[in-house]
Design brief:
mainly alpha; disordered N terminus
Length: 572
């Protein structure tokens, strides 16, 4: 059967959402969604002060419009009411300096609330559109809408019988709420949650199968609904999981049944917000467990080595085949979501991701020189490698491991991230038997030479110690016993010993001590070759500090939850 309400052709009303690479930080798709028609665009408000008016200017025109609206409400002049509210909407459609504050100061919000109860769906549509423009302004202007009678009235319109004949009315009401939920002031988001928005959206979702909308209209509503759901999950502090719990099932259904790029991107980011918004380790475990259980009955959640169907869809979308697809595909947001999954406490989520093909997908993204999320992919692999039980799975996949090692050997722009992966893998005892010691020694030397990151230097030195011990735990060193470590000659040739000697002048004490111990234990450096304490202190004073990477986290989820069914199934 064809997908209900889903299509891949963009709506003529909406413009493509900005790519994740254009969005600041980890938050992905932010702010208000402008429409394509410039004259009707929903832009933010001006920060300018009040405007002067000589009686014939814009302020007088706005006051006249609002006065006409008041008189029409009392007289029942339907056509005049429609043309007046349309004119008010157009007055706010300026791309620069829209008079949002002026409209608020004239008391427009209460009038617009009355219009939302009008019998004409066209009047309600125009009123919702005006509110959309007002809510796209500053936080204070969005709060003026959020604290008014408009929010409960918008809820009523969304689930009213009138939306069956006019899907654009439903979409416009969702858009107003999305502008409120997506504001930087999270108190506005929390107000919508407290008002019961999730219940209203659940009712709308249950109505969808019975609505006779066309494919284009249905997709437009679902895009805006998905954006709104994502906005309700984002922001710091994050909303309590109990208030946004239905979003897990909604986003899972989008990922399983939709192919629309905008919907998928918003669903990816929504799940990122849910997973990364935890207040602590226990909350993180609860959120990850809920993610894995979305759409499954208790006891039915797939366990590795079986693939997890939702994660498998994320893995599929993470891989993009050409540069031209990166900007319009949900690949970047999918990579970010995979990173959030494998960075979860414990190992269950990361194990589910690897069983679903995440490692190979991330390696391919990392190897794509045109992909905007190469570093995110490398860090996701580094988090997976931090787990002792998962590291062997990364090494055992030749395509994945060669991509990681090759990035270091070529000096790629993800060389440093890949060096973290190598360090984590080498320190994982179960993975040692899979490693080529000679290649690892070369990579250690290249990584130490290339990175100024003191935390990475320390991790690489730990990995060197583990690797040398594993290669021969009987050899004490070159000097004294006369016995040569199997990798000593290679260590000299590839420059590893030179790097260790240089690190004796490191500003970081543990790096200095680790380098010295390696030289003494494995390569016979005697006391005459050690740098003096004075030289070491002088170097500490001369070398500026470098930022330290945040600690790598492994993943884990446990436990199950009852099935949370939804009346409307994507792809049904």
């Amino acid at each position: 059967m064809p997908l209900i309400g889903l299509m891949t052709t963009p709506s003529t009303q909406g413009t493509p959402m900005p790519s994740a690479s254009e969005s600041p930080g980890f938050t992905g798709l932010q702010g208000r969604r402008p429409i394509a028609t410039p004259s009707l665009a929903r832009f933010g408000a001006s920060t300018n002060g009040p405007r002067e008016d000589n009686g014939n200017g814009p302020l007088s025109r706005l006051a006249e419009l609002l006065s006409t609206l008041r008189s029409c409400l009392g007289s029942g002049e339907g056509m005049r009411l429609l043309t007046t509210v349309t004119a008010l909407r157009c007055s706010l459609a300026s791309q620069t300096n829209p008079p949002i504050q002026e409209v608020l100061d004239l008391g427009a919000v209460d009038l617009l609330a009355d219009l939302l109860s009008n019998s004409s769906s066209l009047v309600r549509l125009e009123a919702a559109w005006v509110l959309t423009n007002i809510a796209s302004g500053t936080s204070a202007q969005a709060a003026a809408v959020a604290s008014s009678r408009c929010v409960p009235l918008l809820f009523e319109v969304i689930v009213s019988p009138g939306v069956a004949e006019r899907p654009e009315l439903c979409e416009q009401c969702l858009w107003v709420l999305g502008n409120i939920a997506g504001d930087s002031d999270t108190a506005l988001r929390d107000g919508l949650l407290a008002a019961g928005i999730m219940t209203v959206l659940g009712q709308l979702f249950n109505m969808l199968p019975s609505l006779g909308w066309g494919m284009t209209q249905r997709t437009a509503v679902l895009r805006t609904l998905t954006w709104l759901m994502s906005s309700l999950c984002r922001g710091q502090p994050a909303p309590p999981i109990a208030e946004v719990d239905p979003a897990f099932d909604y986003f899972a259904q989008v990922l399983m049944g939709a192919e629309d790029a905008e919907m998928l991107t918003e669903a990816h980011w929504g799940l990122c917000y849910l997973l990364e918004g935890a207040s602590g380790a226990e909350d993180r475990l609860r959120r990850c467990r809920r993610f894995l259980e979305a759409g499954f009955a208790a006891g039915d959640v797939p366990q590795p080595p079986a693939e997890h169907p939702v994660i498998a869809q994320v893995v599929r979308r993470a891989q993009s085949s050409s540069q031209s697809e990166h900007e319009t595909s949900p690949s970047a947001s999918a990579v970010r979501l995979l990173g959030a999954i494998v960075a979860s406490p414990g190992e269950a989520a990361a194990a589910a991701a690897l069983a679903s093909g995440a490692a190979r997908a991330l390696a391919r993204v990392m190897a794509d020189s045109q992909h905007p999320s190469r570093k995110d992919a490398a860090w996701a692999l580094a988090n997976s490698a931090a787990s002792g039980t998962l590291a062997p799975k990364i090494v055992s996949d030749a395509e994945v491991w060669d991509a990681i090692c090759g990035a270091v050997e070529r000096g790629s722009d993800v060389c440093q991230e890949c060096a973290w992966i190598v360090a984590n893998v080498v320190k994982s005892t179960p993975a040692l038997s899979h490693l080529d010691g000679t290649r690892m020694i070369r990579i250690m030397a290249l990584s130490l030479r290339a990175t100024p990151d003191l935390a990475l230097q320390s991790a690489l030195l730990d990995a060197c110690g583990v690797l040398l011990q594993h290669s021969s735990d009987k050899v004490v060193g070159i000097m004294g016993s006369g016995r040569v470590h199997p990798l000593a000659t290679l260590a000299h040739e590839c420059g590893l010993i030179d790097e260790l000697e240089a690190l004796q002048l490191s500003e970081r004490e543990d790096v200095y001590q680790k380098a010295l111990r390696l030289l003494e234990a494995w390569f016979g450096l005697d006391s005459e070759n050690r740098p003096t304490e004075k030289a070491h202190q002088q170097q500490q004073q001369q070398v500026p500090g470098s930022p330290i990477r945040p600690a790598l986290r492994s993943s884990s989820i446990c436990g199950l939850s009852p099935l949370r069914p939804s009346a409307y199934q994507f792809g049904a």
